Structures are given as structure tokens and as C-alpha cells.
Amino acid sequence: MNTFILITNGYIQNPGQKKVRGNVLIHKNKIVDVTENVPSDVECIDAQGCLITPGLIDQHIHGGYDCDFNTANVDTIVKFLTQLPKHGITAICPTIMTDTLDKIRTQTENIIQAKAELPKNSAKIIGINLEGPFINAEYKGAHSKELVLIPTVQNYHHIESDEIKIIIIAPELDKNLELVNYLKNKGVIISVGHSAAENLHGLKHVTHIFNAMAPLHHRNPGIIREALINDDVYVEVIADHNHLHPDIIKLILRTKPDSKVIFISDCLAKTPKTITKGDAAINEQGNLIGSLIFLDSVIKKNLGMVEFKDLLLYCSLNPAQNLGLKHAGRVEKGMNADIVLWDEATYTVKSAFVNGNCMC
Which of 133, 179, 279, 290 has the fewest CB atoms within 10 Å around its CB? Predict the structure, then answer.
């Protein structure tokens, strides 16, 4: 089909910028123009009262609803991805946590197969985020201590896949940084997390800062210090107000360049065994093990403290740039038609497009 779609009567809200009145013309999977004119012979979608934004990108999500990326089959993964656009999420990195090597391989294969079967209007899979097993058991969090492995190239070969986009490791356990150097050569994003390291060993990415690492201390500040003051380092933030106090989120935002903050959901599937405390998941010991909300709810929680345009930086443009997605994160000519319409009064998602296909 050669149908053109025009989103009209709304305000275009790009990350970090002022909103502007404009119409967005879509053809197939691309934004072909952003204009004040209304072309003839196009299908029009009325966005009156809406903000038109790029889709949200969650680079650290373990699942949601009944989908757990450590256990879900292909059909469950596909179904989950079709539900995410109603939360404004148009792309994710499914996150597999520490497990047996066999289970990690199986789930990697399931995610790859699901990616090949996704409907056109479902959220996209950018690549897998592998959280473990190469972590420090001292800061294992919800991970199984018995399944933690030493980060070595040999161990990684057992689960290696071209679909792995991000890998979270404890670099202090990587002898001579052999695995780090191997992964760098393959173009994998290496993130420091679940770690007792005293410095970042030259790495430029930190997983859910303040969580699963030594606390910031005035005489031994550790990796939190370097993550905050090194302007080249991306920091992931679980901004659900459970994993971090709102004032700590403010501290991060005052310290870091706007371009180096990435909000993540760290969302888990809610099962009959899940212990909940509000919108957080906890274990039997009462410790936080993850969140139960998606990025649209994270945005709502932080409105008032952070402007919507800046929240779009942290939830869309910044993860797009971190993941090397050159055609995502902005509503501009030539970009992918991954677009969300938000009710301007309530900041509720009203509709979303993935590759120009509407979830209406």
C-alpha cells in the first residue's frame, strides 16, 4: 500500500525542545515530512489536544503482564510485545537475568524467534540485554548466587549471540579485562552493574545506578562517584521512586549531562508468587527485586519534578543514541515512524505508531 497518513492538529514535542504546532506526514515506515500544511488525498488522524512524541525505548526490562524473559515461550513474548505500544513503548531490549547456561541459550533463541514473528504494530526488539551471569555475588540482588559465573571469554562463548546488545558485568572479576576487550571488539555495550568495583575500568555505562553496588561513601566513593562525575558515562536510572528516593533522582539529574541519563523500568512479570509493595516487587526478605510499572508510568511519576520534554530525553532520545539507533528518538523528517500521541492534559497514551502502523 502507498497510503500516506497525516497526524494533524497536535503539538510536536521532541525531547528537550519546546513543543511546536505541526503535522506529521507518514509514508510506509518513515516520517516523510513535518509541515504546517495539510496535503490532499491523505488519511488524516486528528491529534487535537495531543502531544506528538517519539516512541519510548526501554533498554532494561525483564517482562511484564505474564511474560518473563527468563521463562517465556515465543508466543508469550510476541503477545507481550504487542501490548507495549499502548504504554508508548515502541522498542525494547529484552533483559535476561542470571540463569543456567542452557536456560540463557533457550531464552536467547526464543527472543530471536519472537523477533522474527512480531506483528508490524508491536514494539521492536533492538537486541538482548544480558544481566548476568557475570556479576559479583556480593551484589547479586535478586540473582541466584549459585548460578553466578566468572567473566571469561570461554564462559561467554557458551551463551554468545549476535543478538546480545548490552551485557552487564562486574569488571573487577574479569582478569586483565579479557572479556571486556573481547566484547568491545564485537561492538557490545558493556555496562558495570552488580559490582564491587572501585572504578569503572574505563567503561562508559552503568546499570541502575545506586542499586546493586557499594553505596556512595565520602572517603570511598567507588563507582557511583565516577558514574556521576564522568560526563562520558551513561547511567541507567530506575526512576520509579522505590529504587531511588526522588531527591536522589534530582541529584543525578543535577550532576549528569542531560544526554547521559537513561530511565529504565526494570519491570518484571507479575506472577502469583510475586510479592508486591505498591508498584514494586520484593522478595521474601523484603528487598526490592524490580519494578512493576512501564515507562509511561515512570514518566507520570516524575512529572512536576522533571519537565515532560526532558523525560522524553531520558526515555527516548538518549537510549536511542546509546543503542546506535540513528533513526529513532525524534519526530523529524527521515526518522522511523515510531510515534506516540499523548493526551496533553493527563499525559496518558492515546495512540501509538510503530513503523507507521497504528495501535489505535
Answer: 279
